[in-house]
Fold this sequence. Notes:
Radius of gyration of chain B: 13 Å
Number of strands of chain B: 5
Strand content of chain A: 15-25%
Shape of chain B: globular
Radius of gyration of chain A: 30 Å
Helix content of chain A: 40-55%
Shape of chain A: flat
Distance between the termini of chain A: 47 Å
Helix content of chain B: 40-55%
Number of strands of chain A: 17
Oligomer: heterodimer
Structural class of chain A: alpha/beta
Largest sheet of chain B: 5 strands, parallel
Strand order of the largest sheet of chain B: 2-1-3-4-5
Largest interface: A-B, 26 and 21 residues
Strand order of the largest sheet of chain A: 2-4-5-7-6
Number of helices of chain B: 5
Amino acid sequence: MSHELRTPLNVIIGYSEMLLEDAEDLGQEEFIPDLEKINSAGKHLLGLINAVLDLSKIEAGKMDLYLETFDVAGMVEDTAAVVQPLVMKNGNELRIECPDTVGSMRADLTKVRQAVFNLLSNASKFTKDGAITLNVTRQTGDGEDARITLSVSDTGIGMTREQMDRLFQEFSQADASTTRNFGGTGLGLALSRRLCRMMGGDITVESEPGEGSTFTIRLPAEVRDPAKSLLEEPEIEDTPPEALEGSSTVLVIDDDATVRDLLERFLGREGFRVVSADGGEEGLRLAGELRPDAITLDAMMPGMDGWSVLSALKADPDVSGIPVIMLTLVDDKSLGYALGAADYLTKPVDRQRLVSVLEKYRQDDASCDILVVDDDPSGRRAVRQTLEKEGFEVAEAGNGHEALESMEKKRPAVILSDLMMPEMDGFEFITNLRAREEWRAIPVVVLTAKDITPEDRMRLDGYVTQVIQKGSVNRDALLAEVSDLVRNFGARQGSR
Amino acid sequence: MSRILLVEDNEMNRDMLSRRLARKKYEVLLAVDGQEGVAMAHYETPDLILMDMSLPVIDGWEATRRIKASPETKNIPVIALTAHAMSGDREKALEAGCDDYDTKPIELPRLLGKMEAFLGWASAP
């Protein structure tokens, strides 16, 4: 999405800039102001798009932090240098108060810089022939973690209480005419605050109309990754894992010792016997030896990753029946499609492969009904022709709804289904299909133009019973879910 | 005259940047995907590579890793051209072995500054 929006804009900005250079070289001065308008409108729009995309990324929980340790004074100096032209534009003077003792901090450098830049550029916009001061301090309260404070004060127009209240709302500057007078997207401040909050800090403001404003960024000197921090709060009561005789065994495969420790303690307290492995190979070995009742598996591990471990587990008939719970940081809203697809074909469809896949499902009698579900009529036709030549009976449907209707009339032997379709897509269709007892056994071959990710594949294979995100749920919910799942599996295993 | 390899799949971006660089008296070589970029880095040994990151066949990160893994090309500076600083592209580009990065839309004076830092003022065009 982002790429599609930015590329054409980059072209508009780039070519208008080229024409500006041309106009200057050729002495065509009269074109310059108009070209500048195209260029600056393009840049404004790009700024808006970037901010909207960033905000939506944060909202979707997809904005990652890249933590690194950097020198605060150096960061401040760099940012000030970038903002200097903006400061001078309105005849302002920039003063920096940053003692060397501030030292370094650990945070996402790009995001901190972005927030500081935003405050400085706002101050420059709303102040004329005045002074902008950036004051940087390190605060170490007793017992508290050290914090870095960066505050930007200006001698500009200031704000009323009411204006301040609306300040951090998206698309809201002090009033609607502000954008006209001062430019800017109205999103910068909202975005900067979100970025600071992601890092465990915040932005606050103090101001009086006519008296200037002070915006203050407060950040922990050591920002913690929120994805990890959920597993770093060791506030669980420490009860020794008392493994009961005959209790279910859970194998925890995770490279992160904190996660292993946490799951061991929590599941142990719930009465499970927990064995853990710190990597894929070790996990596979233990799975074979112990035949646990359930396995929790981290998707992201160095060396052999979780998906490879999962494939290996499912390829081994001795352990393939053990339910696996994936623990993953990968954010994906199409969670939990344990659909049980029989096979995959990617588009454009290779005819030979199509026929050979379907031959597997053809019974001894030559006729075999196939339902082709695809929203693209020409794609359907091509598949139909190929199959009819091979003696299959073919019915067509343009989406999941039509497919379900068609099946009420005639039950196909095999279904060939696209994933991306209007009205009812392939995932939903297969879910509906699986909900009906009499249709559950019909093999579904997934037909897709979409690049199937390893996760999608596992989901479609019905391998993954549940995918849990470490990052988006809180620790208790995560643990409760793991515990529930393990319990259910244990029960199912026992009743087999 | 410095020889610059520009690896960029978007035709207009390629046209734009190559023409602007040519005007600044650089010799510009073009590759349209990561694989071609790696190949041309080998047989053209340019003085510097400008690498778009989202490329077909193999992407810019992988292309950079390959260029930096090969003894013949590992000393050629690679500047990543990323869409947007906030997306984490900067970090990923530096991890892949890029020597520097710049964001699109290209601001020519800024990019030229970064290029000259590698090419050295002595060989400046």
